[in-house]
Each structure stands twice: as C-alpha cells, then as structure tokens.
Write a structure and sequence with these properties.
This protein is an alpha/beta fold. It has seven helices and 18 strands. It is 18% helix and 31% strand.
Length: 318
C-alpha cells in the first residue's frame, strides 16, 4: 500500500464524489492501463476497489469517482462522509482485470451509472491512440451522470452519447439499434449494474456478436435468494493439510480466517476477482459474477467470498 494525499475532492453528480490522489511529494505513481482499478483502505478493516477514470498517460495522480451507496457496507459512506482534501489514504498499486484491446478495429463502450469510471478511462486511452470508438452512457437522469460536462464537450462530442431513463423515448438507449450488424473486428465493453450489463450482453449476443468480443465488469452482485438446501462441506489447505469445516450459513473466507488463514478480499460479492483461489481437487459451486463460463467449467479456481462446494471437500492451492 502507498500513502497518497487527497489533493482534490468534489461532487460531480448526485451521489457521486470525485477524489484526486497524489504522492505527498508529487513523485510519479506506478503506471496503469485502461480498465485498471486500485484498492483503497477507506477505514480500519475496510478495503474497497475503485476504477481509475483519468487517462493512463498521467503519472502523477490517480482519479476515482465513488457513488454513495444507499445500502453502503462502510466503504462509500466512509469516503463521502469522512475523507477531506489533505487527508491521506492507503492505496494499492493498480491492477487490471478489465483490460482494453487497443488493436480493435472499432470499440463500443457502454456505461450504466457509476460504471462510467473504467469506461471513461478506456475512452481517454482510445482518444490518445486515435482509435475509432463510440461511448454510450445511460443513467436515470442527467443529474446522476458523472463527467457529463467532459463527455458533452470536445473531443468527446460526436463520440459520446448520453441516454436518460426520464427522457422522451427517442432519447433513451436503444441497444438493439446500436449493436446491429457487428463488424468482425469490433469489441464491446460494458460496466454498470448487473441488469444493465445483462441487457447489453444479451442484446449483443442476439445481434450476432461473438462471445470473445464481449467484455464486462460488475461493480456489485444482484440480490439472490439462497439455495433451499445449502449444507456444510470441508476445505483443505494443500500446503499444510489443515482442514476447515464450512457451515451451512458460513462463508469460506470466514471459516478460513477462524483458522488463521487470510485470503485477500475486496468486494466480498464475487465481482472483483481479488479473492480468486486455485483449487487442486473438488467441485466448486460457483456463485460469482467474475469468472467466465469457460473458467467456471474448468473448476480449477473459485471465489471463496461467495462461492461454495458441490463436493464434500475442496482442496485449495494455498
């Protein structure tokens, strides 16, 4: 973790606060690529990941934008209510689990709500490279749109389209029209609420987009009912032979922590990939939104923050 100073913070949309982070002495920061995020220790015991939304060419600042969640688990509330300019935050080096293919013939970018943060960074990078792209940003209303002034002025004017749910029908996002007749060398990137992502990906698939051209990043998992039967199982640590029992209503990460085995976590909802753990044997019950269908089918890793087991024991490569 680096100790960075909050050099600027301001509200940029309803419920959205921007934070600019720099080294205290102004030295360069570790480089990042479009789609990357950083982990921020927002309070004792609370670490959250936030996408970087400034251009990757900048080396002396990181910019994040944080939505104040109505049902905050402590992360967004702490940043909105406690952090001021001049404060210092512990911030991890950038990681990228949502990389941009910079060689695509054309790129379509879709953002829903706060999902604009990694999408804006991608758009900034594509502008720098001179690559063709179009950005479509959907929100409930204009006052909820972060970076609206940036996206409606040059050089984004003519490349970015803003759509609002409270606008007339002709001013709302029509994904079916936009995604019609996909070019063979086009790539699609989408970030936002799970229903928005599902709508874009389902529409793209129906319009003939190939699966390997579709890329998504979730910020939060949708509410899901627990399975009717959810029994206990065991997890074994391959390196030590330690066996932990996971109760019917217990998370794997909590069972491991009770035995002194700490697995890094961030979202705790299976969307960020921070806790992905290799599996040597056993069959996991995947409940995440991070792994692809192919990765799930391989059954060689899982997300212990939310996933469980279909077999009686999982042997973890820890």
């Amino acid at each position: 973790m680096m100790e960075l100073t909050v050099t600027r913070t301001r509200m940029i949309a309803e419920g959205v606060r921007l934070f600019e982070l720099r080294r205290p002495a102004g030295d360069p920061l570790p480089p990042f690529t479009a789609g990357a995020h950083v982990e921020v220790r927002v309070a004792d015991g609370i670490v959250r990941h936030y996408s970087l939304c400034n251009t990757p060419e900048e080396r002396r600042r990181y910019v994040i934008a944080v939505l104040r969640e109505a049902a905050s688990r402590g992360g967004s509330a702490a940043l909105h209510e406690r952090v001021q300019e001049g404060d210092r935050l512990a911030v991890g080096a950038p990681r990228n689990l949502f990389p941009l293919d910079e060689t695509a013939g054309r790129t379509l970018l879709f953002a829903g709500g706060i999902g604009i943060t990694p999408i804006l960074c991608m758009a900034e990078r594509l502008l720098t490279l001179g690559r063709p792209f179009a950005l479509h940003y959907a929100a409930r209303s204009q006052n909820r749109m972060a970076f609206r002034e940036r996206l409606t002025a040059p050089p984004f004017a003519g490349r970015a389209w803003l759509w609002c749910d409270d606008a007339p029908p002709e001013e709302r996002l029509d994904a079916r029209r936009i995604l019609a007749d996909p070019a063979a060398d086009a790539h699609l990137y989408v970030c936002g609420p799970a229903p928005f992502i599902a709508h874009i990906l389902d529409t793209a698939t129906a319009q003939g987009w190939a699966a390997d051209r579709l890329h998504r990043e979730y910020f939060a998992a949708p509410p899901q009912a627990a399975p009717a039967q959810d029994g206990s199982f065991e997890v074994e640590i391959a390196s030590s032979g330690l066996v932990c029992r996971v109760g019917p209503e217990q998370r794997v990460i909590d069972a491991l922590a009770a035995h002194g085995v700490e697995v890094p976590v961030s979202c705790e909802q299976g969307v960020c990939g921070t806790c992905v753990t290799p599996i040597r044997s056993g069959i996991p019950d995947h409940r995440d939104l991070f792994l692809t269908d192919a990765e799930r089918a391989a059954n060689d890793r899982f997300t212990p923050c939310c996933s469980r087991a279909l077999s009686g024991r999982l042997v973890l490569d820890l």
